[in-house]
Specification:
10% of the residues lie in helices and 30% in strands. It has four helices and 25 strands. The chain is mainly beta and 528 residues long.
Length: 528
């Protein structure tokens, strides 16, 4: 038999797919880092890896696990966005005082199993915890105490202290009041002893549900101090320190068949020191009024017993609580001219005043007007009294002279003022020569000094320069005065002669009185 069969040929395409036959390998086998304590979410380290498989394939993408050193779960490792990096972060706050060093062992794997047994790559991460100054911590964070509200000033409340977590630093802690809304507390810096600073009151607006809340601060002495906060809750137990009071301050009643008025009584103290209440009328109020407690002993029935004139009356009542603490309350009662419960005040009691009150006011106004009129009359009479002159007419003094008025001025005189305008302007032939000389040099003046202490010397020097300045007015030159005209109606003044001549008799001067005595001595007396 011979092989002469038919033969055919074909093409086969074989695709070789990648399998996970390469394990991811850390670029570094060990890392040492420092992480501050109390940080959550802090990135401890990033650990890159390499993988020989097809990039971006499931056999190439890496994932990471912490296989040791993370017993308490302080750390977590995740894969970075590029699938070739492991990132270790903190998930719990680290405490330097409890453990200052952690050693983690991290292994790198792929997302798919290995195609064959391979040795996985691991890396060691040594985490050193850095010490950070931590705030002191109060134990407990909120402390509650119960005290009576009437404690005296400087009484001790409690000792509220904190401890510093930084035990290795051996720091000192001091205490202060952080928030004290009513300013009731004092704290000793060294010991944390809290005392009463000012009187406390359970009924204060700062107390809610009988509790007063304050914040206490604990501060260490580090270079950058850290502050811890503790809450102090003070429960104030009630004491009978408030007397009951009547809420209503004014009422209106009729003066005939008056109906009782219900008054409300309140007490700031708690129910242990409140109702049932008691009431007593005081003073003159007992004569005209009656006051009794209502059925629940929480209100007062006040009623007018006698018919009073319309007006306003003060009713004084003393109210007791169940602890016999009392206080007097005054109620202003307007009594109107009406009957029964229909209280209507007519015009006779305008603005709450009775007729007697209105008459009194009108009388006071009238008296005031009379007083003002008398005062004005007195002032008028006082002004009309003629004052005596300072000097009488017969009082002779050499240094006091009386002068009469000299007339109404130039307007009432028939003067021709034109003659006064005859000057150089009307004489062009005469030239002025009172001008500054131009041929003489002017002296140099000092400028004003900057130092105020030199002002005196500056003034003296410039004053001397000005005195010797030939160019400064008035000028040493000829001045021309014009003639004012001739033919004066007054005549010549040459007829006046002041010389002593024998033809003039001055003996009569001595008869003119003591005012002319000096003149008589000079010109009288004959030859002497």
């Amino acid at each position: 038999m011979q092989g002469n069969g038919l033969v055919s040929m074909g093409k086969a395409i074989i695709t070789v797919t990648d399998s996970n036959d390469h394990a991811p390998t850390f670029e570094k086998n060990s890392y040492s880092v420092t992480v501050p304590e109390n940080k959550v979410g802090f990135v401890v380290v990033k650990m890159p890896v390499t993988d020989g498989d097809d990039p971006q394939s499931p056999a190439w993408a890496a994932r990471f696990r912490i296989v040791s050193g993370n017993r308490d779960g302080f750390f977590n490792v995740s894969t970075g966005p590029n699938k070739q990096e492991g990132i270790v972060t903190t998930v719990k706050p680290l405490d330097y005082e409890e453990n200052n060093k952690y050693t983690l062992l991290v292994v790198a794997e792929n997302n798919v199993p290995f195609a064959k047994p391979l040795t996985t790559s691991t890396a060691t991460v040594i985490v050193n915890v850095g010490d950070v100054n931590e705030a002191p911590v109060f134990h407990p964070e909120e402390e509650m105490i119960s005290v009576p509200e009437n404690l005296a000033v400087d009484d001790k409340l409690t000792v509220y202290t904190a401890t510093d977590p930084d035990t290795a630093k051996n720091q000192k802690v001091i205490y202060r009041v952080g928030n004290d809304p009513a300013d009731w507390l004092n704290v000793e810096e060294e010991t944390g002893q809290i005392k009463v600073k000012s009187s406390m009151d359970r009924e204060s607006l700062f107390v809610m549900d009988d509790k007063y809340t304050a914040l206490i601060l604990a501060i260490d002495d580090d270079q950058i101090p850290a502050t811890g906060t503790g809450t102090l809750v003070i429960k104030l137990t009630d004491v009978n320190d408030n007397a009951p009071v009547i809420e209503e301050r004014s009422i209106r009643v009729c003066n005939k068949e008056s109906a009782p008025v219900l008054l409300s009584v309140t007490d700031k103290d708690g129910p242990n020191f409140g109702a049932p209440y008691k009431v007593e009328l005081q003073g003159d109020s007992r004569r005209n009024w009656s006051a009794v407690m209502n059925e629940t002993k929480t209100g007062i029935k006040l009623q007018l017993q006698t018919s009073l004139e319309y007006g306003v009356y003060s009713v004084v009542m003393r109210v007791y609580d169940n602890g016999n603490k009392y206080q007097d309350s005054i109620v202003s009662a307007s009594v109107c001219d009406c009957t029964g419960q229909d209280v209507q005040c007519n015009e006779k009691s305008i603005a709450g005043f009775g007729l007697s009150g209105i008459l009194g006011i009108l009388g006071g106004i009238l008296a005031l007007l009379v007083l003002v009129l008398l005062l004005l009359l007195f002032l008028r009479r006082k002004r009309s009294v003629k004052k005596e002159p300072l000097l009488t007419d017969d009082d002779t003094r050499d240094n006091v002279y009386y002068y009469d008025e000299e007339g109404g001025g130039e307007d009432d005189q028939d003067y021709d003022l034109g003659v006064l305008h005859r000057g150089l302007d009307n004489r062009p032939d005469v030239f002025r020569n009172d001008v500054a000389p131009t041929f003489m040099p002017a002296p140099q003046y000092r400028p004003r000094p900057a130092n105020p202490e030199d002002i005196g010397t500056f003034v003296d020097d410039n004053l001397k320069a000005a005195d010797n300045d030939p160019t400064a007015p008035p000028y040493d030159s000829l001045l021309i005065f014009d003639c004012e005209g001739g033919g004066s109606e007054a005549g010549s003044l040459s007829s006046l002669n002041s010389s002593s001549s024998g033809d003039q008799d001055y003996d009569c001067v001595s008869e003119w009185g003591p005012r002319f005595k000096k003149l008589a001595d000079m010109y009288g007396g004959g030859e002497d």
